């Protein structure tokens, strides 16, 4: 008699869209294929870019005979944690000077979001979390896996106007129950590429304070939105200046190009310094039970750069180079669409910031681009602006024109 498998009733999960797109793109042999789906920087030649400063540090680390492969501390590399905190909050931040800030290294920004949500749910007992509508695909999934009872959305994107749905955003926050977690994207909002203005951030902060909600920032693109690391951190710094306690998930995948090294950090700001050891101890338990301790290589790279004035200066210039190319591709695509008279308004292409643009293309129009032009993008119309180059922008613009003109939204 054949043994009965414990696994026979397991259902296949739906493919992860962005990775399925990349796989399809890689298998495609069409000479004009374009990948606008991948969430990673690409050069003008549509290639991944190992930052020169990263290569330099890797060589330095490889020749450092004092390094070994012992476990990192559970909370991560101390020099990384302190330097990354200053990167986000600023060298002269009062909360840092008052010893009210600490952090734990995480397995990428995703890991930081995960342990932050875990702490808020398991240690503070928060059961309700709000994410923007739309948001990064993983936010809801992580909250669901942690068994949050209420996973809600606050309105964010006005598809008709192709802009921030600000008044409805505020209305939804005002209606959120006390002690709800509000997940905010600090810069380069995914997938819309649309961020609040400074004045709008101030109004958001006022509502969160008035309603006694908990702010949790996801900071995945510092430097990528404007090319200015300080400018992109403005929202988090403002909240800290206003006396908020908060969490902030930092990622170094994009701004260091360290996608597969999984370098992240979960930063926390508390009201009194005496709370820090207790909070950190709880995060250390969560980390111990999740990945035990973080990987060293990527963390050492980031720590070395952030703690060296010379390397830091070189890195800042590189970040600006990447951001400037993205801004240039936005302008080029906008001008091509405008020149060919593509129906609709396309101002949002240049008004949005960061790596992604929320084009406004429908699912059927996006599929038209994939099936007929071999241009790969997410079904919600999100494109990675790094995938646009001076060599393919005419092709991409013509394909979008065809989709908008001939395919019903």
Descriptive notes:
It is a single chain. 45% of the residues lie in helices and 14% in strands. Helix 5 (108-122) packs across helix 12 (276-290), helix 8 (198-210) crosses helix 10 (234-241) and helix 16 packs across helix 17 (393-406). The protein is globular and about 65 Å long. It is α/β, with parallel strands linked by helices and 409 residues long. Strand 3 (128-133), helix 6 and strand 4 form a beta-alpha-beta unit. It is built from 17 helices and 13 strands. The N and C termini lie far apart (55 Å). It has helices at residues 17-27, 52-62, 78-89, 94-97, 108-122, 137-145, 166-174, 198-210, 229-232, 234-241, 253-256, 276-290, 297-306, 309-339, 347-351, 363-373, 393-406; strands at 34-35, 101-107, 128-133, 150-155, 157-158, 163-164, 181-185, 214-219, 246-251, 263-269, 356-358, 375-376, 382-384.
Roughly what percent helix?
40-55%
Order of SSEs: HEHHHEHEHEEEHEHEHHEHEHHHHEHEEH
Query: What is the distance, rounded to the nearest whole angstrom, between the alpha carbons of the first and last residues?
Result: 55 Å
User: Largest sheet, described in full?
Assistant: 7 strands, mixed
Q: What count of helical segments does DSSP give?
A: 17
Unreliably modeled segments: none
Shape summary: globular
Give the percentage of residues in beta strands: 5-15%
């Amino acid at each position: 008699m054949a043994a009965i498998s414990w696994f026979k009733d397991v259902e296949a999960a739906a493919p992860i869209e962005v990775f399925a797109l990349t796989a399809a793109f890689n298998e495609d042999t069409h000479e004009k294929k374009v990948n606008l789906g991948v969430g990673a920087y690409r050069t003008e030649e549509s290639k991944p870019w190992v930052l020169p400063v990263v290569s330099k540090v890797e060589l330095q680390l490889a020749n450092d005979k004092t390094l070994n492969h012992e476990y990192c501390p559970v909370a991560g590399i101390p020099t990384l944690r302190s330097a990354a905190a200053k990167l986000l909050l600023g060298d002269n931040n009062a909360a840092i000077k008052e010893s009210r800030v600490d952090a734990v290294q995480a397995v990428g920004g995703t890991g930081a979001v995960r342990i932050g949500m875990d702490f808020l749910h398991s240690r503070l007992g928060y059961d309700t979390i709000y994410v923007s509508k739309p948001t990064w695909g993983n936010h809801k999934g992580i909250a669901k896996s942690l068994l949050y009872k209420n996973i809600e959305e606050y309105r964010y994107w006005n598809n008709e106007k192709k802009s921030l749905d600000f008044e409805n955003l505020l209305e939804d926050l005002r209606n959120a129950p006390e002690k709800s977690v509000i997940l905010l994207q600090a810069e380069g909002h995914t997938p819309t590429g649309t961020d609040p203005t400074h004045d709008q951030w101030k109004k958001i902060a006022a509502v969160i304070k008035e309603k006694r909600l908990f702010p949790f920032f996801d900071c995945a693109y510092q430097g990528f939105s404007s090319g200015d690391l300080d400018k992109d951190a403005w929202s988090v710094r403002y909240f800290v200046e206003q006396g908020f306690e908060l969490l902030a998930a930092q990622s170094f995948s994009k701004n260091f190009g360290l996608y597969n090294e999984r370098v992240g950090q979960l930063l926390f700001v508390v009201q009194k310094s005496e709370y820090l050891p207790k909070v950190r101890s709880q995060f250390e338990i969560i980390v111990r039970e999740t990945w035990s301790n973080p990987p060293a290589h990527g963390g050492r790279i980031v720590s070395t750069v952030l703690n060296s004035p010379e390397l830091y200066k070189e890195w800042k210039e590189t970040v600006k180079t990447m951001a400037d190319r993205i801004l240039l591709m936005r302008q080029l695509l906008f001008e091509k669409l405008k020149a060919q008279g593509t129906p609709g308004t396309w101002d949002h292409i240049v008004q949005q910031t960061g790596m992604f643009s929320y084009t406004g293309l429908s699912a059927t129009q996006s599929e038209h681009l994939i099936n007929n032009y071999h241009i790969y993008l997410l079904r919600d119309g999100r494109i990675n602006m790094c995938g646009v180059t001076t060599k393919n922008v005419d092709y991409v613009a013509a394909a979008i024109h065809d989709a908008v003109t001939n395919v019903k939204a």
